[in-house]
Amino acid sequence: METDHYRRVLETRRAELDRRLTKIEHDLDQPGNPDDDDRAIERNNDEVLEGLGEAGQKELAAIEAALGRIEAGTFGRCARCGEPISDARLAAVPHAALCSDCMSEA
Fold first, then answer.
1. Which pTM value belongs to this model?
2. Which residues contact 98 (CB under 8 A, 6 or more apart)?
3. Which residue numbers delimit the Zinc finger DksA/TraR C4-type domain (predicted)?
């Protein structure tokens, strides 16, 4: 398996997520607008940003785990059944820990 390729893909995505999460954190730290109507919009926007931040944190954790599997020599094998994860699945979700069958069961 070409783990160097996946390492590069994962590291690139990790850097992108780090930048995006830093921007989200910065945006959430901005002081609120004193106008009531604008505050309501800002609260809605903050909820969306928080959701994006949570999703980004989960993906970041999955990427870190995948990089750990590369180091351990287990990358590309299903964490549940031990069978190889298909190239198509890894191309779509490079941090996948489960094969398609196990993912469907989960």
1. 0.80
2. 78, 79, 80, 85, 106
3. 73-102
